[in-house]
Amino acid sequence: MAQHVVSIIVPVYNAEDYINECIDSMLYQTFTNLEIILVNDGSTDSSAEIINQYAEQDNRIKPIHIENSGVSTARNIGLQNATGEWVTFVDSDDWIEPEMISFAVHKANETKADIVMWTYFKNYANQELRLSLLPGGDQTITDDKDLFHLKAIYSMYGEEEIKESVSSGTVWCKLYKKSLIDENNLKFKVGLTRAQDTVFSINTVEYAKKVVYYDKHLYHYRITNTSTTSGTRYIEDSEKPFNMLLDEFQSFIKKYNKGEQYYKAFYARTIQVLMWHLKHNYFHLKFSGGLLNRRKKIINLIKKNQYQDAIKKVDYKVLPKKERLMTILFKYKLILSFYFIYTLLAGKDKSRRF
Asked: What is this structure's pTM?
């Protein structure tokens, strides 16, 4: 059997509400020489049945069912089973434009790049935004990869104003040469609960000899809920995965001897991660132990070097309003003051972007 030119890897977990639209958008691609690897990560809804039904109808679909192990493991298994010359990733609640794969493969062949990147729509329930992964329009990235890396580490790096954006390190909106991944033994870091894709991407781009970016909107990134405390998964031990993420960024900066601008981005990302601790743990509705216990645990957290350095050294101008206020109050140990402001605004308007 001939090798597939493109492997699309889709980690799936409890996506029954969206997986049909996602799969259909891949099956309806104008480019047909592809395989669609659907890795069901122990879903407890009807996702597994939906995947199997599609596989019976189209032999380009390769279903893989595993016990729940997290998105990093699911993507790694997808990579292990991919037979394509090129690999791309799609999230199970998103969808893609019909010409996405055709466009990416054409540009890969035309430019001889190791990685082709494009941009995306951000889709809310009643709104669609056209956003860019990188500023500056179409561009070729060879030796100077700083802009990509800095916006991967902190998505708002270099922006004149705070606006909606995702990290340039997301693994969707990218077509990777499979040999680049295999020859450098690149994998997703198991144990990270957020930003696994960013860690994978910055290392992959660092190894790439040539990367091309096109400001062409071909991917639909669906926002399914607000990022309020009530809509966020509770992580009882948030320190392990979040501190691991910061360690990965620091290791990258040191390994490749990156300059001071990387630490500016890193401090801003550290403040963002500190906010994740609050959302997923200390300010979450499932946290038990009372207000004083919250305050004690947060103070112990921010005493640790990574957070202490970021609170002291971060550039307030690059932070959104909530993170900026949090940093100022936490600098003076005013934890409960921020807690009351945070919960007041969350209760007043859960869709508000503060």
From this structure: 0.92
